[in-house]
Amino acid sequence: MKFFADTADLNDIRELAAMGLLDGVTTNPSLVAKSGGDFKQTIAEICKIVDGPVSAEVVAMDVDGMLAEGRHLAKIASNVTIKVPMTWDGLKACRALTSEGTMVNVTLCFNANQALLAAKAGATFISPFIGRLDDIGLDGMDLIEEIREIYDNYDFETQILAASIRTVNHVKQSALAGADVATVPPATLKALVKHPLTDKGLEAFAADWAKTGQKIL
Ligand code: G3P
Q: Is residue 217 included in any domain, yes or no?
């Protein structure tokens, strides 16, 4: 499974990329607002750090506006992936942009039929929002499993990009369900390393090493 960082924070992106952990980045208007930086400059900076797909979201609601914004953003770098909403106009924009050779991420997907439509429209990525389904009392992971089954049934090449990931368990479940990508907030990505028995074991090793009185360097 590929890891994307779900953030517009350049420092986090630099750190994760230097570790070789990042296969791409996703941003959205809320994350750009949180980072406080200029949108297009931020996307350009991220594309200098990360070779993989970098999602930049359009804000127009109509197909002509989405296409104008998408084509403009796509000029920033060859790895810019245009994020369009799961709407009728978004699907039209998806088809047009992918036909032009631009990668497209269809976002705000909340059911399997929407994912089917995105695949039919040629989407590069479909973004089912796991956490937001959990928020309303559903199980977001069921959606990943359904989309995986449907895409496999028909050999759709659209990649399942598990989004709205809130917990380390979401990451594991996405991997088990066969998501192609998980886009993960940096704090959650860093939390994947944690286990209490790792900490406890490390403490015991350190204590026993101290008893030896030895030094490595
Ligand atoms: O990738 C979409 C993601 O940023 C949404 O996450 O936590 O706002 O539902 P969240």
A: no
